[in-house]
Amino acid sequence: MSTSSPRRANAEPRWLRLTLTAVALGFLGLFLALPLVAVFTEALRSGWDNYLTALADREALAAIRLTVFIAVFVLPFNIAVGVAAAWAIAKFDFRGKSLLITLIDLPFAVSPVVVGLVFLMIFGAQGLLGPWLSAHEIKVVFALPGMILVTLFITFPFVARELIPLMQAQGKDEEEAAISLGATGWQMFFRVTLPNIKWGLLYGVILANARAMGEFGAVSVVSGHIRGETNTLPLHVEILYNEYNAVGSFAAASVLALLALVTLVAKTLVEWRMRRETEMLAATLAPEATGTSTGNRS
Amino acid sequence: MSIEISGVTKRFGSFTALDNIHLDIPTGELVALLGPSGCGKTTLLRIIAGMESADAGHVKFAGEEATHLHARERKVGFVFQHYALFRHMTVFENVAFGLRVKPRAERPSETEIRRRVSELLKLVQLDWLAERYPSQLSGGQRQRIALARALAVEPKVLLLDEPFGALDTKVRKELRRWLRRLHDEMHISSVFVTHDQEEALEVADRVVVMNHGKIEQIGSPDEVYSNPASPFVYQFLGNVNVFHSRVHGDWAEIGREEAQTRDAGNVVAFVRPHDIEIENAPVAGGLESLVQEVHTIGPLVRVELAHGPELVEVELTRERAATLTLGKGQRVWLRPRQVKVFEASAWDLEDGGSGI
């Protein structure tokens, strides 16, 4: 290198910076942007009319409805249990706390297909609870309840994972203050705790929702693939694709891709709000300027 | 409302935070719990507040059993070291919180709440901040709002956990005088926790000095300072020079009256740096020493001297230092004005404990 221009001691050479940036951007384009573009190009290949017809298909609509229904059903449970678990972990000390934290992470660690198989083994006809369930004519596997159960399992960690560090960082001073001021447990929760964690909670819910709607493996095992009945959107995409119905499958996939984009936007907004609130809290305070007035009264 | 604490013990695992504490706090008194970190003072305060439960012992409010009363029902005002203001509420809503969460039958009307809150904000002289959020306030302002919030429910007891610990010196001084005045105006019992001896001595009616989960001494600020019950209290309340009489036979001489009753080899003598006089000429019983360092700290001059292998710290007024014209390596004679002698065994027990 014969450059004579001075360069900062801590900066990498220009060519290295450019190469690294190019590699990173190329990777992003190839693996993230290109597939997204491909989904929409394939879906719209034979025009808007065909695209809309494919989406208006009775089975496609049923798949969308089922997907939304499962998500709507699963999320309240996730919120309730996630908040409860995060609360217990962040605000109390008890035996087995680290075990609980590990258990919460379990759904992240296990392959979704295995999850589906496990639920089959428990609730299936040959499973542990199978005889009892069939005796009472309760259908879990290859039906809606099974799909809801596995989705619950898969999406369980998101809310709790998001809230635990947040609640730990906030400590329990404010809750204790609320109690000492005479608040009941519920008043404390709704007036103090919930407003403090709302953005973190929303963030967790957005992630859980994306996962609930996009889940394939576990749901696939317990759904039974009954068209128009137990097909969620991801399963519907696969079926159509296997039938060489490119427009149909990509149209359905584009709905999922749109959902992903909406999730990203929502996630960014929430992250921005969260960061702003943290910054507000951490903002360096102006030096005490309140009066010496406190000193003169007697 | 008076507070009686009897036989309170608290353990965290194998660590004994409080060991059989007995303490009576009469109505209207401002009491400081003073001690190094980890001495159990905050735990005691939290047990009084009901935020922690004692393993053994009783807490009584105005003679009535309160040991198992829920924190919500104790009617105590609690002020946290880090303010614990509700961050998503305005200052006004923070102060109003205690009134808004009252059961419907007891809850004051909206206009009454407005009146009470603005009254309290005037009391802490921050009524102009009502619509701000806690994050927009300075530390001193936050703590005053926290106080107003605690007072909103008209507690009979006010508990403060290192209330000024996170503030800078100037604000801290201002606030503690203000707290003293507020306490006198409100006619309540207050207990505050601090590790700052100056704060305790200046503000409190009574000081409770704690160490290792035990109470070392209870007394007026003057009592604990000038008549410490134990070596720990002595060295915790201000700087101190410690002389082991075995090494310093002549120092035991000086404290003769007190030392006589004990075996001369087994005592330690405590002398405060400002209780030592420096003389340029030899005096009877004076300790010959060499000046090591001279620092001027504001109105005081701190002199470090070597007496044999021991380092002695002396504090003089500027005027006195000027007449002595002390220089490095100068030979001088030390004369203590006031010595406190303890048995060496009592000191050894505390040795290594935090202090100077």
UniProtKB/TrEMBL annotation, chain A:
Gene3D superfamilies in alphabetical order: MetI-like
Keyword Signal: no
An annotated Gene Ontology molecular function: ABC-type sulfate transporter activity
Function (record text): Part of the ABC transporter complex CysAWTP (TC 3.A.1.6.1) involved in sulfate/thiosulfate import. Probably responsible for the translocation of the substrate across the membrane.
NCBIfam families: 3a0106s02, permease_CysW
Superkingdom classification of source: Bacteria
Keyword Amino-acid biosynthesis in record: no
Protein name: Sulfate transport system permease protein CysW
Subunit structure: The complex is composed of two ATP-binding proteins (CysA), two transmembrane proteins (CysT and CysW) and a solute-binding protein (CysP).
Residue ranges of the TM segments: 20-40, 60-87, 99-122, 142-160, 201-226, 246-266
GO CC terms, sorted: plasma membrane
Location in the cell: Cell inner membrane
Species in which this protein is naturally found: Propionivibrio dicarboxylicus
Domain ABC transmembrane type-1: 64-271
Automatic annotation (TrEMBL), chain B:
InterPro entries linked: AAA+_ATPase, ABC_SmlMolc_Importer, ABC_transporter-like_ATP-bd, ABC_transporter-like_CS, CysA_C, Mo/tungstate-bd_C_term_dom, P-loop_NTPase, Sulph_transpt1
Domain of life: Bacteria
Organism of this sequence: Propionivibrio dicarboxylicus
A GO CC annotation given for this chain: ATP-binding cassette (ABC) transporter complex
CDD domains per UniProt: ABC_CysA_sulfate_importer (cd03296)
Organism placement in taxonomy: Bacteria, Pseudomonadati, Pseudomonadota, Betaproteobacteria, Rhodocyclales
Ranges where the ABC transporter domain occurs: 3-237
Database matches in Gene3D superfamilies: P-loop containing nucleotide triphosphate hydrolases
Keywords: ATP-binding, Cell membrane, Membrane, Nucleotide-binding, Sulfate transport, Translocase, Transport
A GO MF label: ABC-type sulfate transporter activity
Matching Pfam families: ABC_tran (PF00005), CysA_C_terminal (PF17850), TOBE_3 (PF12857)
PANTHER family, alphabetized: SPERMIDINE/PUTRESCINE IMPORT ATP-BINDING PROTEIN POTA, SPERMIDINE_PUTRESCINE IMPORT ATP-BINDING PROTEIN POTA
PROSITE patterns: ABC_TRANSPORTER_1 (PS00211), ABC_TRANSPORTER_2 (PS50893)
Protein name from the UniProt record: Sulfate transport system ATP-binding protein
